[in-house]
Amino acid sequence: MKRVFLLTAFCTAMSAAAKMPQATPEGRSQPAKLTAKTVNPDLIREACIGAIKREETAFKRLDVTGVSESIGSSDSVATCSVDAILFEGSGVAAPRGTITTSKVTFSVRVDVATGETSVARVDEAAARQAAQITLASMFIDMKAVSTSPDKVTYSATIADKKCMVDVTTQGSGEPKRWLVGRIECKR
């Protein structure tokens, strides 16, 4: 019984000693180092939300819909992905006016040692478009068959199918835009 009690007391004392400030060679005490693993996740979430709320103005309001945090590559950095609805326009600050809404995602980096945050808006639509263009160029072999100032015909091989695509500016008005006129695929 005494051994169990002494072992428990010893473990408790060692745990408490590990949490105490460390002494430097000059005799000054040093606070325990904060890491992303030791900081309460709720505090990290609040820091992330606070960082994006600083982006608000009289004509711009953010309503947070979701937050997910993760520990960065170093223990002193945590990152959050914050989903929000962005309200912009004169109607945000006044009872009347126009408001546009859009769903946005922010990436927030939190240095847990200093509390500094950095915010970047993630443009998912542009990233998606870049990925689609890259995938299309990898899997679609396309060559121009005929060209004119207002019409281009492409030959393409897509998943073992031979396709012909006509792209034209006829009927698009000003400014001229290229519109797909015809797609025809055969095995």
UniProtKB/TrEMBL annotation:
Signal peptide start-end: 1-18
Keywords: Signal
Name listed for the protein in its UniProt record: Uncharacterized protein
Organism: Burkholderia cepacia
